[in-house]
Amino acid sequence: MPVIEIRELTKRFGPKLAVDSLSFDVRPGMVTGFLGPNGAGKSTTMRMIIGLDRPTAGRVTVNGRPYAEHPDPLRQVGALLEAKAVHTSRTARNHLRVLAATHGIPTSRVDEMIDLVGLTDVATKRAGGFSLGMGQRLGIASALLGEPSVLVLDEPVNGLDPEGVRWVRDLLKYKAAQGCTVFVSSHLMSEMAVTADHVIVIGRGRLLADSPTAEIIRSASSNRVTVRTPDAARLQTALAGPDVKVTTAGPDLLEVEGLASARIGEIALAERIVLHELVPQQASLEEAFMEMTADDVEFHATATSTGGPTRDRSRV
Description:
Layout (H helix, E strand, L loop, with lengths): L3 E10 L2 E11 L3 E6 L6 H8 L7 E6 L10 H4 E4 L11 H11 L4 H10 L15 H13 L5 E5 L7 H16 L3 E5 L3 H7 L2 E6 L2 E7 H8 L3 E5 L3 H8 L5 E6 L2 E5 L3 H10 L6 E4 L4 H8 L7 E4 L5 E4 L4
Parallel strand pairs: 3-7, 3-8, 5-6, 6-7
Antiparallel strand pairs: 1-2, 1-4, 8-9, 10-12, 10-13, 11-12, 14-15
Helix pairs in contact: 3-4, 4-5, 8-11
């Protein structure tokens, strides 16, 4: 049973259509990545999940009902949409204590979360003086405070150092393994590739993909195989065929299209040709994402006369 269920969700801000008839489910027991170019509607969708924006049309439910109808929302959904959305004059501990008081959560849980996210040394300092990374940690502590079964996190690793990024990755995987529903957005494709089990991609408010991460990458990968051999010329002759393209990429390096790596290995063995390397060329999640969203990017970079990027405003 889906825990987050979105059906025909639409949101307009005046003449701008931010989310366009969006439908998908987010299920428990896995990390679901939410991807899209800037302006795709990710943050707006997440805000509608937790009731901060009202849909123009469609519906979204969490655990079977709209977020606002839950009598104990903090125990249902832990959300981080804006790291700096705290009262700047409150300390980290007091911020969490105020949240805990609304749901009868004991202070011991507050101290447990402060320790978990690594804010013990600054727990009595005002949140207004926190760096972006410290603010993210406080936001994650707030999301986890009520021990919710659903996590909705918008760019949770933004501003974190490599150790912090890895910590968040391990945390999300751990919560998913416990059976939680984890829905997380990020622009860091390399991080999503190793964190997300499933990926939902949107562009200009529309659904572009809803598939396992490995399937997304596999669908964008070419059938090209790199082969390194000291007998490249003879192997090139042996691989020749009507639907096979073999390109010399170096003195002992070939690029082969039209044959699987296993078949190349079999042909080389039959011809008693030594292979030093046989590598199928697989796309990265970033490459798959760029290919998928090529027509849905609101701002495009173009080269200037000095070689630097500039912004193409023709699609604003």
